[in-house]
Amino acid sequence: MSAVQAKRMRADPSLIVVPYRRVSVAALATNVVLVLLGCFFVLPMLWMIFASLDANPDWAIKLPSLTLTNFADVIGTAGALSSFRSSLILAGATTVITTVLAVLAAYPLSRMHIPFKRGFMLAILFASGLPVSMLVVPVYQLYVYLGWLDSLYTTALFLAASSLPFAIWLMKNFIDAVPAELEHAAAIDGAGTVRILRQVVLPLTVPGIAVTAIYTFINAWGAFIIPFVLNSNPDDQPGPVEIYNFMGSHGLFKFGDLAVFSLLFSLPVIVLYLFMSRYFSGAFSFSGAVRG
Amino acid sequence: MLAEVKFEGVHKIFGTETAVEDLNLSVEAGEFMVLVGPSGCGKTTTLRMLAGLERPSYGRILIGDRLVNNVPPRFRDVAMVFQSYALYPHMNVHDNLAFGMRAHGAASLLVEQRVKETADVLGLGNLLKRRPSELSGGQRQRVALGRALIRQPQVFLMDEPLSNLDAGLRVQMRAELSRLHERFRVTTMYVTHDQVEAMTMGDRIAVMNSGRLQQVDVPETLYDNPVNLFVAGFIGSPRMNFIKGVLTTRDGKAAVRFMGATVPLSSSSKLIGDTADGDVTVGVRPEDMMWRKAAGPDSSLTFSAEVDVVEPMGHEAYVTVLCAGETVTSRFPPRSGVRTRERVDLALNPARLHLFDARTGESILQRPVAGSAEALKSAREAWIEESSAGRDLRPQAPVVPTQSEEV
Amino acid sequence: MAVVAGLGPRLDRERFQWSSLAMLTPALALLGLLFVFPVLYAGYLGFTNLALVGARSRDYSFTGLDNVVRMLGDYVFVKSAWLTLIFVVGSAIVGQSVLGMALALLLRNAVVPIRLIVGSIVIVAWVLPEITVALVWYAFSQAGGTLSILLRHSDTNFLVVVPMLIVSLANLWRNVAFSMLVFSAGLRNLPTEVLEAAEVEGASVWRRYRQVILPLLKPTILTNLLLVTILNLSEFTLIYAMTQGGPGIETMTLPLYVYQEAFVFHQLGYGTAISLVLVLIGAVFSLLFVRAARSQA
What we know:
The structure holds 3 protein chains of 3 kinds.
Chain A: H1 3-11, H2 13-17, H3 25-52, H4 69-76, H5 78-111, H6 117-127, H7 132-146, H8 152-176, H9 180-188, H10 193-204, H11 206-221, H12 225-230, H13 239-250, H14 255-280
Chain B: E1 5-14, E2 17-27, E3 32-36, H1 43-51, E4 58-63, E5 66-67, E6 78-81, H2 93-103, H3 108-122, H4 137-149, E7 155-159, H5 167-184, E8 187-192, H6 195-201, E9 204-209, E10 212-217, H7 219-224, H8 229-234, E11 241-250, E12 253-258, E13 261-264, E14 270-271, E15 278-284, E16 289-291, E17 301-312, E18 317-323, E19 326-332, E20 343-348, E21 354-357, E22 365-366, H9 373-388
Chain C: H1 18-45, H2 66-72, H3 75-109, H4 112-127, H5 130-141, H6 146-150, H7 158-161, H8 163-188, H9 192-200, H10 205-233, H11 237-243, H12 254-264, H13 268-296
């Protein structure tokens, strides 16, 4: 699964040196079942790839009559390009705000004495579970009042607020994992809080910061309802809203363009994930987290 | 530059646990003070309070003449070697060494010069570009030491710095630490649970147990005149034998009865205060309970005993015997040929008995200090040999677990 | 706190460091403005007759329990609540957790290439933007789509015939990677000695799973259930993009109903009231899982 694990598996001498392995029924069944499950996961995706390359696509997966006109069509349209730009601004701004604030907040929550810290962390955990649908109406009202509607940056601000609780929680766990003794050593060595943060804690939590940032980015990149409600400016609709509108207006005729659009829009997050995959699995050790 | 360290009535309470209780301790300027005790005795808490990582609940801590209770670690001018070394994993050896000086804003030329000096003293010269993960345990230990040395602090704090090394390296580093202290003479507070480390390295030793300071003294006195059962049992390996006894006084002459024998107290020892007759605990060190055939003329008492376990150590053997209902360990010469179930004669010098109040565990007998300097010297050498022979070679002692086995 | 007599006040009371406040302030400010305030505001709006347009958009008032009464008589709401429950229990609690656990266990024992490829595919399905997932599953389930051909019913539009099943499957397809990752991490953190001891004692695979692995994984399982429930309760984009709640109201789960009432029918007050019900359901589930976790600790 993770690249690290895979590397370890590959390097495991017991797997290489042993000249034969017993092929048991159970092992065979395990792999066959996995291949079938893999098909279940890959089939819907395959349609997107095949249809994007097909001159005459329909809803079914079929070998395409190869063409690149779909790609040419989509890349040629102004709407596609501007929606990429909008998504980049929206997800980028959200990621920067969320990550910076999460790192800043997570450090004192992890290391310093703060009254009611436990209650605060529980509230954070609870907040990350609140449905966005609940916040949409009051935030919409607030944005009307503040005159913040129809801007990518104010929309990013709300996206950042809604992703911040989980990001703080994730980041705190990463900082908790840095041995406190290193900070003690630095403190005795004469370093102040700022130096400890900059030279000891931050360098050691780079993987954690990257995971938090990429997780936030992936979510913001795919965010739909928040920009859908808060930003109705037709000139900077992010990708998901653009794709949704496209499905609604002429999706039934231009399968190929739709497939290309979705494919292109999905690539950045897939690349980001692959880039970070070896750190990702570590972020999901939640055993006993319910107890707070 | 050199500073003394003082704890005055220091307490540390965590929740409902009292980790350190009413600690009064002075470390003289330039002294190597070892804080020793079993795990959980409060020694590490004491060290962390001196470092500034914990604040005392009550009392005063002074470095030099300065009250440091509320001084953060970075302003205390102390350096610490951690048990885990706590090297910065993302920095190479050079930057690990330089970190503290840079934090204090030292000029880079001076930093370079000192890094070089320190690396030379510790033999790290060709490792400066390596990360901690690329170093062996011993090398990491040296870097941790170097990080403390380079700062030229007023006080060195060491928290079990040798406990993560293997036996051979530990002995080597022990000697090296002593050499470094001879050379720089910086006030040092050294925490360990290993009484061998304590005895071999400390100018003075402070023994702690359950948060309380038991006794502070030079190693010889601690060994010869332990103030209570705990110190007597903790210092020395194998452990001192404790035997039930009764103190009687007849015609103004005190005598103690144990293991079926009545032994008049030697004239050189004297009872402390107005000790009343009654139950006592008799303490006998294993080297004082000798094999009759190997004993000198001073060992005037003879006991007949049955051998239970023989633990050959190479240069000697620990023999556990059953004698008049008591289990007693004795140090035998090597290749004595005694076997389990065999009957042997043991000899005891009555001048080398320890006596403790059976109820309070306090020592009730003041023994002569220099009376047997020769015996003591040989005993100390014996420990050094024993540890250089490698403690790992020693089989587990099932009957009488020794303190130095504790990890 | 223990006080030793005669020593005066404790000297080591924890001191608040102002630097911690400085670091927390930006996050607190943002959360205060765009999270805490909206939550509290929602708590109020849910009991008003606020509308998006018209007279009630400015001139709204507190209406007490009117919205609650209206809900109880609103058959769309009742159906919507029922659909939400089906969706969360079927797709998330049962589907996602069981398949996630199965994948985690199977991948552990699979040969390396299959482990890598299948594992990656499952995770890619998860990182895909929801709108993409909606599109590919829309295509997958249409008449003439891949599913209909596989099932030899090529003129059946499954999104019309069994809409709830299809959106649940699509959601399962997308989100199962989360549970898989949580369980994989949990399995990885199990003490190997215990598993080996069970193996040496000759316990069968099934027995090892039931009597050793499952009990040890219990905290992980409960955490997974809690997070999965909360995340899926508020699922909007996937269902909305695939069906807009239709056909009819066959897939109108609560989040979609909130959106419809608030922004299509302009009933902001009533919409918010429904969203409060959603929070209530989430809180009840959370409480159940937290209690289960406590009882075993």
